[in-house]
Write a structure and sequence with these properties.
This protein is α+β, with helices and mostly antiparallel strands and 167 residues long. 20% of the residues lie in helices and 26% in strands. β4 and β5 (98-104) form a beta hairpin. The protein has a 4-stranded antiparallel beta sheet with strand order 3-4-5-6, covered by helices on one side. Strands 2-1-7 form a 3-stranded antiparallel beta sheet. It has helices spanning 3-9, 23-27, 67-74, 120-125, 143-150, and strands at 42-49, 52-59, 76-81, 90-95, 98-104, 107-112, 164-166.
C-alpha cells in the first residue's frame, strides 16, 4: 500500500494531496479546530519507508479509527497516538483486520487486543516489563527508548522531512 492509498483509506479525498510539505507547513494550513462538539478540519501527511506506508494525523483527522480496515487492505497497521501523560500515549497494532495488540505508554502492563502478549518478549527484553508481564519500577529504559527499540515501525516523519498531505 502506498502512502497516498493509506491516506485515502484513512478518509482522505483522492486527488486532494498537496506537494510534499513539512510538519510546520501543515500547521500553517489554517485547519479549523473542534468547536462546540463539532469536528473541525483534519489533515494527514503520508509517506513511505521501505514496505511501510506511514501517516501523521493533524487536527480532527479520524484515520486512526479505521485501523482494522486498513490492516485488512494492507495486512498490518500500527497506530501511535502521542498525547500527554493522562490519558497516556497509546500504541495499537492490527493485523488482517483484527486489533491484535495495544497498550498505553508507561502502562504496558495493561495490554489489550486479540493477542495482548504478542510483543511481551520485546517489552521484557527492553526492561519495560518483568517476565510475568508486570511493570518494572523504577524503569531502566525510557518509554521512548523502549518504543523505539522494541516496537520499531519506521515512522521517519520528523518535522524537517517532507511528505504529502491529504486534506
Amino acid at each position: 500500500m502506498s502512502g497516498v492509498e493509506l491516506a485515502v483509506c484513512m478518509g482522505g479525498v483522492p486527488g486532494a494531496e498537496t506537494v510534499p510539505i513539512t510538519d510546520s507547513e501543515v500547521e500553517q494550513l489554517g485547519l479549523r479546530g473542534r468547536s462546540y462538539g463539532v469536528f473541525g478540519d483534519g489533515a494527514v501527511r503520508v509517506g513511505q519507508d521501505g514496505e511501510w506506508a506511514f501517516a501523521v494525523e493533524y487536527g480532527d483527522s479520524t484515520g486512526g479509527d479505521r485501523l482494522e480496515a486498513i490492516s485488512s487492505a494492507s495486512g498490518e497497521a500500527v497506530h501511535y497516538i502521542p498525547v500527554g501523560a493522562r490519558p497516556p500515549a497509546r500504541f495499537h497494532y492490527a493485523k488482517d483486520g483484527v486489533l491484535t495488540f495495544g497498550f498505553g505508554i508507561d502502562e504496558e502492563h495493561r495490554r489489550w487486543g486479540a493477542e495482548p502478549d504478542l510483543f511481551l518478549p520485546e517489552l521484557i527484553a527492553e526492561h519495560v516489563l518483568r517476565p510475568d508481564g508486570s511493570k518494572i519500577f523504577p524503569r531502566t529504559t525510557s518509554p521512548a527508548q523502549a518504543r523505539t527499540n522494541a516496537l520499531s515501525a519506521p515512522l521517519s516523519s520528523g518535522s524537517a522531512s517532507r511528505s504529502r498531505a491529504l486534506l
